Amino acid sequence: MCNLYSNTTAVEAMRQMFDVLPSNVHLGNAEPLSAIWPKYQGHVVRLNSEGENELVSLSWGFRTTKTSKKTGKTLQPAAWNNARDDKLLKSGLWRSSFKERRCLIPATAFCEAKGRQPATYYWFGLTGEEKRPPFAFAGMWTLSRFEGAEGPQECPCFTMITTTANELVKPVHPERMPVILAPEDYEPWMKGTIEDAGSLLRPYPAEGMQVLKSGETEKADML
User: What keywords are annotated for this sequence in UniProt (predicted)?
Assistant: First the structure.
């Protein structure tokens, strides 16, 4: 499960990397995001109504209504920031988004924790000529509608998809890792059939990744 990632790629670099027209960049004066947590804003590449790539800012985690089991009072909504690859067509929370609203989540690193009190935090990234090469997670987006403390609310949001951990991630998180897509897979993920998209849900090759940093703090400024 991934609960923290970073995206320090400049807006113009993202625009070129994901083939987004200048008129379809809706990020304003976006700054690099060194630490993105659930319910925080993150950058997303999705298809607009004309079928073109657009860059937008959405909140991380599909929202659902959450109530207290003791009092029945409405609490802060739950945020579902990860979606298992084997649940996408089985769960009503994910099904329509997997079929109709797939997206790319730009990133430069993601964090996983090992152990407790204290935990050791590992930042993973790709190998390459750059210190932290940019990449994209496989994601989905939706407009979540839910009951909040003040009544009905809605939130444009996204989630990232996880799959089986590869050999680099497995010692830290034995079961899961985010799905990282290769550049040639961006278009099939966004525009392909369900079968096309499903075939891309696999662990990224361990030899193409590296541990960027580890330690007893999860702060992104370690990088």
Answer: Covalent protein-DNA linkage, DNA damage, DNA-binding, Hydrolase, Lyase, Protease
